[in-house]
Design goal:
There is one protein chain. This protein is an alpha+beta fold and 219 residues long. It has helices at residues 2-46, 95-110, 131-139, 152-161, 204-215; strands spanning 52-53, 64-67, 71-74, 82-88, 117-123, 145-148, 166-168, 179-181, 185-188, 194-198. It has 2 domains: 1-46; 52-215, Glutaredoxin, CATH 3.40.30.10. The strands form 3 sheets. Strands 1-10-9-4-5-6 form a 6-stranded mixed β-sheet. Strand 9 and strand 10 (194-198) form a beta hairpin. Helix 2 crosses helix 5 (204-215). The longest helix has 45 residues, at 2-46. The chain starts with a helix and ends with a helix. Residues 9-15 and 28-45 have low confidence and may be disordered.
């Protein structure tokens, strides 16, 4: 009788052992899942932005315009690059050259990382800005800069798409005129998603910091 009791005890012990193993397996699985979640959260938390985040507020990058040589350039041509979308015009007396010079300095500070960035200067003055003129204007600020222009209708549609305001003012007696336009620069990641907004008050150091993060593979 004692031998049967001993056998029963051993069987009970065996059942408890199998149950313990199952519980340990479930616990280990949950632990791995938790660590993976914490790792993902850590990676997300590591991405701190100094600029204004606009992810989800604007459509993905999409356009078809003309650049130097009357070549067509589209968003697909810039796939894989961080794109800075800026609307201006070549006859702009102050804001545009100041902004472009500032961004040229940012690109210089980026060093080798600047190869992963393109500054797209889109004209809001298609009446005067030809593809050759706007491309030459942009390239004067650096090799990463691209100038492009569309028809009046294409310019209007693109500006509306990205909530850019512009208006040509009344010409003077010589036919010269200025164009009032938004100053912000939209930043799109390598997948064409709108991510950040650069305002005219943002410091170059903040812009460099955020662009470095976007250029990195994990962004």
């Amino acid at each position: 009788m004692s031998s049967r009791a001993g056998l029963g005890n051993r069987r009970s012990a065996g059942v408890r052992t199998e149950g313990d193993r199952a519980r340990r397996f479930v616990f280990a699985t949950l632990l791995v899942m938790l660590l993976g979640l914490l790792g993902a959260c850590s990676r997300h938390a590591a991405e701190t932005w100094d600029l204004t985040e606009i992810r989800g507020y604007l459509p993905d990058l999409g356009f078809s315009l003309k650049t130097g040589g009357n070549r067509t350039i589209t968003a697909a041509d810039l796939r894989g690059k961080v794109v800075l979308l800026y609307f201006g015009y070549t006859h702009c007396p102050d804001v545009c050259p100041t902004t472009m010079a500032k961004m040229a300095g940012v690109l210089h500070e980026l060093g080798a990382s600047a190869d992963g960035v393109r500054l797209l200067f889109v004209s809001v003055d298609p009446k005067r800005d030809t593809p050759a003129l706007v491309e030459a204007y942009a390239k004067a600020f650096g090799p990463q800069c691209i100038g492009a222009v569309g028809t009046a209708a294409e310019t209007e549609d693109l500006a509306r798409k990205y909530r850019v305001a512009y208006e040509a003012l009344k010409p003077d007696s010589d036919g010269n005129y200025d164009v009032m336009h938004s100053k912000g620069i939209y930043v799109f990641d390598g997948r064409g998603r709108a991510r950040l907004l650069i305002s005219d008050t943002d410091k170059s150091q903040a812009i460099v910091h955020d662009l470095r993060q976007l250029v990195s593979p994990r962004a």
